[in-house]
Structure formats: structure tokens, C-alpha cells
Amino acid sequence: MLTIASEIEVLARFGRALADPIRCRILVMLRQAPAHPAELAESLGISRTRLSNHLACLRDCGLVVAVPVGRRARYELADERLGHALDDLRSAVVAVASDRTCADADEKDCC
């Protein structure tokens, strides 16, 4: 069982992963179906190098895993509960005023 401090660290990691729009899009795409990096890069309109950096962050945060498929890797959410959590977050976002922005959006410690 996690301690309160451990739970907070896990939540903070999840928050850091969600802090980037591209990583959010990757998670939403992987919620729909596992995908190969080339497919993700093409769908997102970004380079494979840039995608690789984002996937590394998501792996380090424990949110996605690479599953070997022959000589390639397919990415998927690390746990099906993450998909449910993403669904819940997406539903909750609807309740938040869309005209709000973080006052310190450019600062690392922004909400």
C-alpha cells in the first residue's frame, strides 16, 4: 500500500505527463487503441524524434509501456485503469470554464 507521500508523488508524475498537449493527445490516442510510433507520429504530425522524447517521458512516468511485436514496438497504456481515469478527467474538464487559463502558464510550477 502506498503512503500519502507516495500517492502524491504518483499524482504529480501523472500531472507532469498531462502538462504537455502532445502527451495528452498520445494518451487519448492510446486510450482508443494501442499504436506503433510511426502511426502516432503521423497522426500527430510530429517527427519520430519528437514523439520518441514524449513516449520516453510517458514510459518514465509509468503511464505507457512498449510491447514488442516482432522487430517493432507497439505502445499502449500501462494499465486499463489509466484509460478510465482519462475518461473521468475528460468528463470533468467539461465542467471547468473553458475561458480560464493559468495565470503563470509559462512557469514550470503552474497549476
Automatic annotation (TrEMBL):
<dbReference type="InterPro" id="IPR052543">
    <property type="entry name" value="HTH_Metal-responsive_Reg"/>
</dbReference>
<dbReference type="InterPro" id="IPR001845">
    <property type="entry name" value="HTH_ArsR_DNA-bd_dom"/>
</dbReference>
<feature type="domain" description="HTH arsR-type">
    <location>
        <begin position="4"/>
        <end position="100"/>
    </location>
</feature>
<keyword id="KW-0479">Metal-binding</keyword>
<dbReference type="Pfam" id="PF01022">
    <property type="entry name" value="HTH_5"/>
</dbReference>
<comment type="function">
    <text>Metal-responsive transcriptional repressor for the cmt operon. Binding of cadmium or lead causes the repressor to dissociate from the DNA.</text>
</comment>
<keyword id="KW-0104">Cadmium</keyword>
<dbReference type="InterPro" id="IPR011991">
    <property type="entry name" value="ArsR-like_HTH"/>
</dbReference>
<dbReference type="GO" id="GO:0046686">
    <property type="term" value="P:response to cadmium ion"/>
</dbReference>
<dbReference type="GO" id="GO:0097063">
    <property type="term" value="F:cadmium ion sensor activity"/>
</dbReference>
<comment type="subunit">
    <text>Homodimer.</text>
</comment>
<protein>
    <recommendedName>
        <fullName>HTH-type transcriptional regulator CmtR</fullName>
    </recommendedName>
</protein>
<keyword id="KW-0238">DNA-binding</keyword>
<dbReference type="GO" id="GO:0003677">
    <property type="term" value="F:DNA binding"/>
</dbReference>
<dbReference type="GO" id="GO:0010288">
    <property type="term" value="P:response to lead ion"/>
</dbReference>
<dbReference type="InterPro" id="IPR036388">
    <property type="entry name" value="WH-like_DNA-bd_sf"/>
</dbReference>
<keyword id="KW-0805">Transcription regulation</keyword>
<dbReference type="GO" id="GO:0003700">
    <property type="term" value="F:DNA-binding transcription factor activity"/>
</dbReference>
<dbReference type="GO" id="GO:0032791">
    <property type="term" value="F:lead ion binding"/>
</dbReference>
<keyword id="KW-0804">Transcription</keyword>
<dbReference type="InterPro" id="IPR036390">
    <property type="entry name" value="WH_DNA-bd_sf"/>
</dbReference>
